[in-house]
Amino acid sequence: MQWSTIAATAVGTVLGVVATLAADHVRWRRDRAEHDRETLRTACTEYLSALSRARDAFSRTAPSPDRVGKGHVAIGEHGVYAAQQQLELVARRRLVDSVGRTTLGVLDFHDAVAAGHAPDSPEYVHAWRAVGRARTALTEEMRAALRRT
Questions:
Q1: What CATH fold (topology level) applies to the domain 35-148?
Q2: How far apart are CA 122 and CA 129, in angstroms?
Q3: pLDDT at residue 101, as a whole number
Q4: How much is the pLDDT for 1?
């Protein structure tokens, strides 16, 4: 048997193995990226759902001046902090910062309602609109993060 035949067979085998490994690596990276995107999408959805539940519950709450400044307890009861912490584990810093600002906006809204501001008062309207702006900015940041992953 000629050495050239053996060498060609060995090189062909090595190239086949390398090509298979490269294809498997590309497939693994694609699957991993899709898994990461789905994990982030789920965490974003859970946070937005918890935030909406809290905001809606706060808008129906009766005024209670002794609850002003205690929105962190009420917001925790709606699962916002748990969802926020889940996002902190899977999201980039910029998105986490936006989530924090939105949570603080909902806390400010809670305080406006608990202080007894009527829905047509400037304080209530300001707090409601601030939450809306923060949520809109957060949603855009979430969309950008989902496109990046």
A1: Four Helix Bundle (Hemerythrin (Met), subunit A) (1.20.120)
A2: 10
A3: 96
A4: 62
